[in-house]
């Protein structure tokens, strides 16, 4: 196993890059995510542990956000009385006033799900020590967090003091989410902190125990309980310290802190090596189906493993009432809210690689149907209208106003009201899950209800005008153009949605008639309603320019100022930022794949009027919209890679893929400190499998590949689940394909 292609390595730590690396080096297990902050802290750092489902709406905040829970990482090491810190510069390397880092290597091993750091450090006393840190969030037992620290005296005979703590005074960048009463337990070997969120009243218990071969002592300062151990190290001698922590919340235990402390006893009894072995075993099963092997492009290989790793650590393993936020559990961006990013970008890779995880995510939407029904009712519609931004309650949580701009003004945010395609995006994911897994039970019990009730919503939402159906005041994927009438993406996807709803209902009537009856009654699926759906399918307005042979993003789009986006290169920001918000919304600059997104989702089923060749129309669409798109959203490049590959435009598709797969690694958007771009991570997986490899289900229900690999990729090998069976593919370049069933 070549771990070089499984590792993200940092060799030269720079203060101005630490927030970026904290995000990249997040560890997690689908229950929580912990940013890669240093154990000893660093000025300006942003340590955070985010637990799925723990949201709070603090006083004065516009919307609820995921809560940063008490920090389990802190370990301070004192060498001959002086603290170890990441000091990288000094004028006197022999007698450094604060110590100095002589050598450093930090690596995230994605195959093993383990973060390590090695530091050679000279203390102010002159002693040189090697510090080796290792940590993981167990994938085999999601409540176990483990750290190992090995300290070696390389030169000198230092006195070492280690303080391991839990920090109960954490905030979300200054916003405090906990009630003032904090339960601090420093009585026994296993210290603990229990807090309660202010508005949502979730209880979070964090326990921790330091295992040292030397005597330990516990105590606390304020809301920070700690354990201390100290000893002398003779030259070339070393010591290993293990720290086991555990987190439970009132979402999963009646007494979170007690339960966490009991879990730590279990962890201590099992021992560090055993826990690590079990953890690595679980990772091996994840990678067996999630890993895509690219022969011929080591950098793409490593980067693709990185993006896949982040989807996997964000996906809830056992909990079907939580979902993946746009920035995973790796940062505070978008306040941990769940968008369409989950269903259209993260769920599809999981459907193929880890279908149970995909099912959990779809169940989150099922459990939140009441919120979607409330939203429809509150807006004067029928059925279920899912929120654009969702949290633990399933209610709409999109803020109506932006944070203050530099001039103090706030911008109105319309997406919560107008970006209604989310309901169809969810239906798309459910349909895909069903087709790939054949999980009829899910469809019958849960999926069909979501597909049908969101169809009821669209049936009540459309407007009947001049013999056709229209949808006014929408926001499509291109969010630069708000409140537009007849977005081709939305209108076409609604037609797809209603067709899907009708065929699901027909299937239910044949395969599960009692359930069909149940849903017909519960959702009031009268013959008139179904007839209207058919009428909408037949008469929906699909904006199309016959002369140009293109789908029109929305009527009036081409009347706006044309901006040649490719002329604005090189750039490190969006063209929208360069032109300014007010001007750019009056131009043809597109934020992200919109008509191109439609082509990704529907392929040739996007359709073309009689007499026109759909492939030619797709190519025309690409040639029209690609040069107008500024990829202001991280969701865009991967979708362009997918569609570009399907159209045989392999070179540009590779450029887009390369950009997308490095969005976080290279901080292409300059905001990775706020968290991983979940959608880009899931998007690149799809770009490779559905785009470059062209995997699809054919009319007969068989899997087919239709490769358009980048020129320098020799082959791509991957495993997918299809209808409960694992299938292995090796797609060769040029088009030499073999498939085998295991
Ligand atoms: O869902 C996306 C949207 O499409 C573009 N702006 C960011 C959101 C969250 O990633």
Q: Which features does this protein show?
A:
742 residues; 5-stranded antiparallel beta sheet; binds 5-hydroxymethyl-3,4-dihydroxypiperidine; 22% strand; disordered C terminus; 9-stranded antiparallel beta sheet
**Main beta sheet:** 9 strands, antiparallel
* Rg, nearest Å: 27 Å
Number of helices: 20
Based on secondary structure, the structural category is alpha+beta
What overall form do the CA principal axes indicate?
Answer: globular
How confident is the prediction overall: mean pLDDT? 97
Identify low-pLDDT runs: 736-742
Strand order in the sheet with the most strands: 1-8-9-10-11-18-15-14-13
Helical residue percent band: 25-40%
**Bound ions, cofactors and other small molecules, one mention each:** 5-hydroxymethyl-3,4-dihydroxypiperidine
Number of strands: 28
Distance between the termini: 22 Å
Q: Beta fraction of the residues?
A: 15-25%
